[in-house]
Amino acid sequence: MSMTQQATPAVETPPAPGPQASDGRTRQRPLALRLLARPEVGVFLGAVAVLVFFLFAAPPVRDGSSMANILYQSSTIGIMALPVALLMIGGEFDLSAGVAVVTSALTASMLSYQLTLNVWVGVIVALLVSLGIGAFNGWMLVKTGLPSFLVTLGTFLMLQGVNLAVTKLVTGNVATDDISDMDGFAQAQKIFASTFEVGGVNVKITVVWWLVFAALATWVLLRTRYGNWIFAVGGNKDSARAVGVPVTFTKISLFMLVGFGAWFVGMHQLFSFNTVQSGEGVGQELIYIAAAVIGGCLLTGGYGSAVGPVFGAFMFGMVQQGIVYAGWNPDWFKAFLGVMLLGAVLINLWVQRTATRR
C-alpha cells in the first residue's frame, strides 16, 4: 500500500439565498433621487407649476396667440441665457452681457446708416465687435487672474458709457436712425426677426432659433470633448490643466460664445424695431444670469445643463406675460423674479446635497 496521500479538493459552498450584505457605497439610489440629481428636473417641475397656475389665474393664457407671445418673450431671454449658462458651468459669469447686446445693435445700425452701406456689412462688423468684446473679457480674466465679476463689471461700465457717448456724437440723439429702407434690411429681417404662422397663430423666428441653439448646446455639453473641458475648468481649473485641458482656450471661447449670443439678440432687436435706444440693456445681464441659476447652474461652476436654462427662461416669460394677462400690477414681476431666484437657489442646494448623500 502506498504511503502517499492524495489531496482532496476543497468543495465551495454556494452562498445562502437571500439579500446580501451591502456597505451602502454600491447600493443603487432610488429612481426619484437619481432624477432629482439632474440639474434641469427641478426647474422643469417649477415651470410646469407656473404654467398650470397662470392657466387658471389668467384665462387669456390659454389662447394660442398669448402662448406664442409668452414663448417669444422667453426666447429673447433664453437665447442669451444659454451661453451665459455655459459660461457659468465653466466657472465664470459676465456682467456686461446686457449692454453688449445694445453695443452690437448700435454698431450694425450706425455703421450701415452713416456710411450708407448694405446692412449686412454692419451685421458682420457687429459680429466681429461682439466676439472681440468676449475675447477681451476672457483674455483679461486669464492674464490678470482677476475674478470675472471685476473684469466684466469694468466692461459693463465702459460699454454703457461708450453706447451713450458715441451714439450722441454720431447721430446727435440717444437713438439710432431708422434703417428699414436700406439695402439688405428685408433679407436680414427674415433671419433675425421674421414671423411665421402655425395653426393660425403667428410665431416669432426667435422661438425656433432658441430651440435650435438649446439642442446644439446640449449636444456640445454631453457629446463633445469641448463639453468635457467646460465641466472640467468649472470644477477645478488647476486639476483640469494638469490633465491637459486647454484652460485658456476654453475660458476665452466661452466668453466669445456670450459675445455671439449678444450679437444675435442685438440683431433681433435692431431688425424688429428698425432703431436702437443707446441706454437700453442695463439690468438684463441679471435676468440672463438668473435664468441660468433657476435652470440649475451653480455660481461655483462645474454643474448645470443647457436644458435647464430653457425652462428657466420660459418661467421668466410665463411670469412676465402671465401677470399682464391676469390684470395684475406688472410691478410685481420683479418680486416674483426674486422669489423664483431665491427658491431656485435653495432647491439647487438641496438637490446637490441629496445627490451626494450616501
Put simply, the count of helices is 14
Helix and strand succession?
Answer: HHHHHHHEEHHHHHHH
What is the CA-based Rg, rounded? Answer: 26 Å
How many beta-strand runs? Answer: 2
Q: Average the pLDDT over all residues and give the rounded result.
A: 85
Low-confidence stretches: 1-13, 16-26
What shape does the CA trace take? Answer: globular
What separation lies between the terminal Cα atoms? 63 Å
| Spatial strand arrangement across the major sheet | 1-2
Structural class: mainly alpha
Helix content: 55-70%
The description of the largest β-sheet is: 2 strands, antiparallel
The share of residues in extended strands comes to under 5%
Features:
disordered N terminus, two-stranded antiparallel ribbon, globular, 358 residues, mainly alpha, 2 strands
